[in-house]
């Protein structure tokens, strides 16, 4: 099974490919995108139906729109080449909501991928896009895959919110936590990746490692190297799960 991994920025992409233990090949895609291809070795035996996955890792840009555009481009190119992906993974660093197990360096696997600021602000509060009669605001990764991925990586599971505007106050953090009980993390790309994957009928997974708490803005306190290290470790642990998983 070929897997498309979509990150926002190059350091996240490189954390993933480094975890796969080989120098990636470069594949040019339409629109100037470049996927980094790795074919991770795995010490486990090659049982029937357990082909080594090819991972194409794409840094598509920051935010849901960039993520959707990059993901859709890669999925379309693969479909045209008759080499479809069996899974799309949104991966990167993120903010952790105040909850057990979501401190800096923690791994979060999304049980739901939620567009948290897609909708309308009304006198009664936030109305999601679905309440306005449009589209969807949530995608659900396959539950079995979420369980297996969380088990292998030691992750917390919970909704991961996609926002176009990074939360920067305690009030907004509390508002989001109240609107999305159990929210574990926020980031800026998951829902865009999931929309593109859904349009192509491909399952999606989101995995985040926590670089900062969701709350008052303090960019200097983001622990990016620690979160990138955790992302690499999480992917190393995830590889056998991807290898064994069948849609
Ligand atoms: O400066 C660097 O070296 C560097 C390396 C890797 C990533 C970055 C980013 O700034 C990535 C932006 C990315 O981070 C996600 N993110 C992280 N924390 C939050 C948050 O609290 N709320 C929302 N998003 C967050 C997000 O997905 C962005 O794409 C820099």
TrEMBL record:
Using the UniProt record, name the top-level EC class of this enzyme in a single word.
hydrolase
- An example of a Pfam family matching this protein is PNP_UDP_1
Could you tell me what reaction this enzyme catalyses?
futalosine + H2O = dehypoxanthine futalosine + hypoxanthine
Sorted alphabetically, which InterPro entries does this protein's record hold? FL_hydrolase_MqnB (IPR019963), Nucleoside_phosphorylase_d (IPR000845), Nucleoside_phosphorylase_sf (IPR035994)
Q: Which GO terms describe its molecular function?
A: adenosylhomocysteine nucleosidase activity; methylthioadenosine nucleosidase activity
Record pathway: Quinol/quinone metabolism; menaquinone biosynthesis
What's any GO biological process attached to this entry? nucleoside metabolic process
UniProt keywords, alphabetically: Glycosidase, Hydrolase, Menaquinone biosynthesis
This enzyme's EC code(s)? 3.2.2.26
Question: Cellular component GO terms, alphabetically?
Answer: cytosol
The residue ranges of the Nucleoside phosphorylase domain are 60-217
Protein family (similarity comment)? Belongs to the PNP/UDP phosphorylase family. Futalosine hydrolase subfamily.
Function description: Catalyzes the hydrolysis of futalosine (FL) to dehypoxanthine futalosine (DHFL) and hypoxanthine, a step in the biosynthesis of menaquinone (MK, vitamin K2).
Q: What is this protein called?
A: Futalosine hydrolase
| Native source organism of the sequence | Streptomyces daliensis
Name of the gene encoding the protein in the UniProt record: mqnB
